[in-house]
Design goal:
The chain is of the alpha+beta class. The chain has a single domain, classed as Peptide Deformylase (Alpha-Beta Complex), CATH 3.90.45.10. It is 29% helix and 29% strand. It is built from 3 helices and 7 strands, in the order αβββββββαα. A 5-stranded antiparallel β-sheet has the order 1-2-3-6-7. The chain has a two-stranded antiparallel sheet with strand order 4-5. A hairpin with a 2-residue loop joins strand 4 and strand 5. It binds ligand GNR and nickel (II) ion (NI). Ligand GNR binds next to strand 1, strand 4 and helix 2.
């Protein structure tokens, strides 16, 4: 297992529509393992493949509470098969947009169908933080970031901050 560097917005790779997997092989399992390690190290509750520069339809998540048993999940070719009418507003953050938090409104509950690491079809029902997280991750696979739900002015302020952060980090190298 290894920790992979997380891309910071703005980056053209975070704007791409990712490609589905044709099947689940060792390379996919290794990528999922690395992404889980990278996510726990960050730390975060989710991580999508494009955030580590891989433009494939895979994300990992673990929304178990601090005192609960960890529940690592890897979802390949995920699709939302049902979304509740009821909406939920949650403060979101993103490992590709460090330290910026804003409220986003999304369906409160979703069902997601996907392939697990054994290549079998599974479907899960998510609510609460897990529902928000799964939708945030699927957005990443479609080149969409949570700041795309904000006003242009908020989005451009955040983008300016991130450009500065990237410049500072590059200078520190
Ligand atoms: O760690 C994360 N926390 C989070 C909080 C609220 C809504 C979404 C998220 S996902 C984020 C990790 C991340 O950037 N995943 O793409
Ligand atoms: Ni994110």
């Amino acid at each position: 297992m290894s920790i992979r560097p997380i891309l910071i917005h703005p980056d053209p790779r975070l704007k791409k529509v990712c490609t589905p997997f044709e099947g689940v092989d060792t390379a996919a399992r290794k990528l999922a393992d690395d992404m889980l390690e990278t996510m726990y190290d960050a730390p975060g509750v989710g991580l999508a493949a494009p955030q580590v520069g891989i433009l494939s339809r895979l994300f990992v998540m673990d929304c178990a509470g601090k005192e609960e048993t960890p529940e690592p999940l890897a979802l390949i070719n995920p699709e939302i098969t049902w979304a509740s009418e009821e909406l939920n507003t949650h403060e979101e953050g993103c490992l590709s947009i460090p330290e910026q938090y804003e409220e986003v409104t999304r369906p409160a509950e979703v069902k997601v169908r996907y392939l697990n690491l054994d290549g079998q079809i599974e479907e899960r029902h998510f609510a609460g933080l897990a529902a928000t997280c799964a939708q945030h991750e699927i957005d990443h696979l479609n080149g969409k970031l949570f700041i795309d739900y904000l006003s242009r002015i908020k989005r451009s302020m955040i983008t300016t901050r991130m450009k500065k952060l990237k410049a500072d980090r590059a200078r520190a190298l």
